[in-house]
From TrEMBL, chains A, B, C, D:
Residues 3-160 form the L-asparaginase N-terminal domain. This is Asparaginase domain-containing protein. InterPro entries: Asp/glu_Ase-like_sf, Asparaginase/glutaminase-like, L-asparaginase_N, L-asparaginase_N_sf. SUPFAM superfamilies: Glutaminase/Asparaginase. The active site is at T11. Pfam families: Asparaginase. GO terms for molecular function: asparaginase activity.
Amino acid sequence: MAVHIFTTGGTIDKVYFDVLSEYQIGDSAIPGIFVEANVTCDYQITELMRKDSLEITEEDRKLMAAELAASEHSRVLLTHGTDTMVQTAQLLAESTSDKNLGDKTIVLTGAMQPASLRVTDSIFNVGFAMAAVQTLPPGVYIAMNGRVFNAGEVKKNRAAGRFEANL
Amino acid sequence: MAVHIFTTGGTIDKVYFDVLSEYQIGDSAIPGIFVEANVTCDYQITELMRKDSLEITEEDRKLMAAELAASEHSRVLLTHGTDTMVQTAQLLAESTSDKNLGDKTIVLTGAMQPASLRVTDSIFNVGFAMAAVQTLPPGVYIAMNGRVFNAGEVKKNRAAGRFEANL
Amino acid sequence: MAVHIFTTGGTIDKVYFDVLSEYQIGDSAIPGIFVEANVTCDYQITELMRKDSLEITEEDRKLMAAELAASEHSRVLLTHGTDTMVQTAQLLAESTSDKNLGDKTIVLTGAMQPASLRVTDSIFNVGFAMAAVQTLPPGVYIAMNGRVFNAGEVKKNRAAGRFEANL
Amino acid sequence: MAVHIFTTGGTIDKVYFDVLSEYQIGDSAIPGIFVEANVTCDYQITELMRKDSLEITEEDRKLMAAELAASEHSRVLLTHGTDTMVQTAQLLAESTSDKNLGDKTIVLTGAMQPASLRVTDSIFNVGFAMAAVQTLPPGVYIAMNGRVFNAGEVKKNRAAGRFEANL
């Protein structure tokens, strides 16, 4: 079973650039994570953008929807900043009348700490999401904090730094 | 949704004891992994034994089956050494005529590198298995190398250090 | 032998704050480094400021010189951003006619990658500097890249990201 | 200034071999440590043996003394298991009437946790020892726990897992 991974930026891929004395979104950390975990499932990675999710616009979201719909894969993982992940999941869920999206299992995930840190949630989250996307039926989901949420039934609790059901 | 995690030993929990100048299976690494990943799903951990899977006997496997059957949870994650994980999954799959097991989603996982290492598959594998156990229908599965295998349809390729379909 | 450690900011102590989606200088990483390395030598830590060294002013440097001179310890380690570490070392070297500074062994160190990263020079550099400060005779030194440089005889090669002799 | 590093085994270089389900002393971790810390000082590494220090014999110690004496470098770092590091330092100190050893700065170091672990003293200890060997006058020293000890004036407190002055 193959998974099509789309990256849009967010925290997972933030790396520290000493020349600039700051972090920036770098190349996707996912290939490295997959090598260290010896992941053997087939996958394809497409980088759509490198944005903090507070900077993601409605145009960006429509681009994501179009790109996901155009994928020949039925299993799609979308990495995304956590701040507006709920909004992107919502738009994708509303777009599933589009047959090309409606037939797909779409899982969004992200992280609060970059994969480049010694202590991070990135690795666990990517592992968790990779299983969710291979096992869940068609639909749009958010996979965070070791739980699977249906799009439209989740919110980010910013103060607590975690996702919670919003039924 | 709650997950009942049973630990039996294996590589995930191996830690280096300097006094002994060697690695031994230590306390479960899972609570620490869950703290770092900010896992909020309910779970319970039961340590059944601390054995390399080459040392696991048929009696041990029957104990595991009995303990899993006695769990009040329908979602069960079993961490296990990789060398005989296939055999344990096989016995559990053969025991599912026992209604108490047959109603459960049972996922086995392990690792080739301890969670205590800087470079490891443990974190990804635990994350991956935690999603699988929450999403899969009742049955017995092995979750390794970023893939889900049905018990009875998988083997460990020892030379390559990975699990493969054995249909 | 006791070491007085003064922190001024710089890269060693940068941590990722997910709420802010960025790195900022956090609490000193040194106590944690010392615990993990089981450091038993006596030490005292004084935080002077939390600045990228590009933001350090001449007033800041004079404050550092005054604080170091006022220390009752003869062994002083100063952690500092790498971009203007050479300038601070130069000012301290010029101030050693002040008897309170002239009697001291003063070692400056920093890092190109924060201690919070999985791959970092921070730990090695702090270890290296802690030995240098305990063994060198009175004077002002920069300890970077596994080498000890006399203040006034070193420059930072920004393009290559390392310190070199500048005789 | 060049440093000649001799490795004899011990904990720094222990790696986990999943095929064997155990740790073993692997290739020296030092080149990798030096790359990550961007160490630019000249060095040469010679592997003498791969032994836990409880297995080191008097013949082994005489070999070490001969090899160190034959080195064309005056700065020598010897990595060694911690259990009998004191004994090896003692023999080297007693051999310094041999002019070829007596002119050298010889620093022994090791670790309680392998460099391959996420939490380790190896990196700090190697950094610390690399400074000590470049700054100390001729003699034989043990560099552990962030302190420098003269050979003959140190013991390992096994219960506490650290080195202490033994005056």
